[in-house]
């Protein structure tokens, strides 16, 4: 589900690997769907899918940017959970988010309602986040980690592994502190992934499955559930 403009990207990150491209190239459309519009469209779509016998495993919020920047996000989540319960009670509700809005209590409480809050943290330092994610405004890893800790482990941590001119997320000075954050937060699952689609920045290098498995092996040995996506 896309809670952002249909003809443009809107995000408070500007990630070097984003499949939607750079923020500057997606500003023609600024209209955000309202909670009323989303509920109506989702109600119709779920009813249509149910009538057609179409299975649904997950209703997932992602879209062309960061879904939690939509000011109606909390109400949209509540509506979505209610419609899920009505039409597909066995389906999960999932949200892919960069975790920047967790300090907003309404957003945090909405994310506590979903089955799969998937929270991004691509690097263990502010400096590396600035290189990879280009936050649009103030961003501090420690603040984000502290807000993630409010989930008490009931979330999925998502991290991108990649190499680029000037940094390598597999280097000991990066992977070691990142694993320490994982140990501190103890998420129910860790999702590590790498480049899969064309990126706006040239020169990025993806990892292989075996390389990524080797990087997270210490966490696997410690009992963490790790999902590796390539």
Would you identify the regions where 5 or more consecutive residues have pLDDT less than 50? none
What percent of residues adopt helix (DSSP H or I)?
Answer: 25-40%
- Spatial strand sequence of the major β-sheet: 1-2-3-4-7-8
How much strand content do the residues show? Answer: 5-15%
Q: What's the number of helices?
A: 7
Count of DSSP strands: 8
Average per-residue pLDDT, rounded, comes to 96
**C-alpha Rg, in Å?**
18 Å
Largest sheet entry: 6 strands, parallel
End-to-end separation in angstroms reads 23 Å
C-alpha geometry: globular
Structural class: alpha/beta
Q: What does it look like?
A:
The protein has 230 residues and is of the alpha/beta class. The protein has 7 helices and 8 strands; from the N terminus they run αβαβαβααβββαβαβ. Strands 1-2-3-4-7-8 form a 6-stranded parallel beta sheet, covered by helices on one side. A two-stranded antiparallel sheet has the order 5-6. α1 runs parallel beside α2 and α2 (73-87) packs parallel to α3 (105-113). The longest helix has 18 residues, at 35-52.
Characteristics of this structure?
7 helices, about 230 residues, two-stranded antiparallel ribbon, about 15% strand, single chain, globular
């Amino acid at each position: 589900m896309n809670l952002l403009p249909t003809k443009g990207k809107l995000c408070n990150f500007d990630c070097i690997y984003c499949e939607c491209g750079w923020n500057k190239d997606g500003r023609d459309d600024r209209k955000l769907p309202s909670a009323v519009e989303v509920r109506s469209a989702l109600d119709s779509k779920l009813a249509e899918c149910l009538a057609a016998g179409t299975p649904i495993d997950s209703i997932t919020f992602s879209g062309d940017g960061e879904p939690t920047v939509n000011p109606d996000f909390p109400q949209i989540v509540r509506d979505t959970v209610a419609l899920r319960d009505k039409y597909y009670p066995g389906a999960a509700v999932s949200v892919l988010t960069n975790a920047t809005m967790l300090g907003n209590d309404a957003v945090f409480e909405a994310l506590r309602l979903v089955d799969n809050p998937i929270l991004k943290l691509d690097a263990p330092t502010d400096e590396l986040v600035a290189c990879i994610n280009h936050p649009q405004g103030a961003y501090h890893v420690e603040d984000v980690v502290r807000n993630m800790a409010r989930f008490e482990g009931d979330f999925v941590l998502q991290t991108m592994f990649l190499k680029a001119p000037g940094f390598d997320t597999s280097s000991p000075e990066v992977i070691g502190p990142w694993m320490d954050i994982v140990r501190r937060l103890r998420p129910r699952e860790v999702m590590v992934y790498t480049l899969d689609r064309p990126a706006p920045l040239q020169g990025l290098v993806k990892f292989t499955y075996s390389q990524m498995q080797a990087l997270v092996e210490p966490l696997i040995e410690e009992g963490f559930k790790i999902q590796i996506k390539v």
